[in-house]
Every structure is written in structure tokens, then in C-alpha cells.
Specification:
Layout lengths: L7 E4 L1 H6 L4 H15 L4 E4 L5 H9 L4 E2 L10 H11 L3
Parallel strand pairs: 1-2, 2-3
Length: 89
């Protein structure tokens, strides 16, 4: 990690989706959060599809959530135009 500038650590959706039902996946998420916390990195959980998953990740200290709970994938230009419209621009 020292050779590359790193700002974020992403948690793969397979761990996010299994963390509440599989003890090992839950421990892996905990360890990723701890690993990222020490150097002050932000943490992103991918593949969040349910409110239960979102609540669990927030409770574990994850900073950012992405997945179908919030939006399906969209092209960058569509995201920007929708964001500008929502911001009143």
C-alpha cells in the first residue's frame, strides 16, 4: 500500500451480503474496518441491497455504502445530470 496513494478500502459485496448470516464474513468485515481505521482510510461497502445490510455496515464503522438499495449502476453523465437537477441547478 505504500507504493500507491490509497484513500479508500472497499469491502466486496460478497462479504457485505453474508456478514449478517456468516460469522467468518462478519469477522472479515471487522478486520477490514480495523485495517482501514489505523491509517485513517475511508471505507466503502459495495453491494448493499437491504436496510439490514446498511445498518450492519454503519454499525461496524463503514463510511460509505453503495448498491441497489440506493441506486442501480448508472453511466457517469447520467449521474451528473441527475445530481445537478436534484441540487437545483
Amino acid at each position: 500500500m505504500q507504493a500507491f496513494p490509497v484513500d479508500f478500502i472497499k469491502i466486496d459485496k460478497s462479504f457485505v451480503q453474508m456478514a449478517s448470516v456468516d460469522e467468518i464474513s462478519g469477522h472479515i468485515v471487522d478486520n477490514i474496518v480495523e485495517l482501514a481505521r489505523k491509517p485513517g482510510l475511508s471505507i466503502v461497502a459495495e453491494g448493499v441491497e437491504t436496510q439490514e445490510q446498511a445498518d450492519l455496515m454503519i454499525g461496524k464503522g463503514v463510511h460509505f455504502l453503495q448498491g441497489y438499495l440506493y441506486s442501480p449502476p448508472v453511466p457517469g453523465n447520467k449521474f451528473i445530470s441527475e445530481w445537478v437537477m436534484k441540487a437545483g441547478g
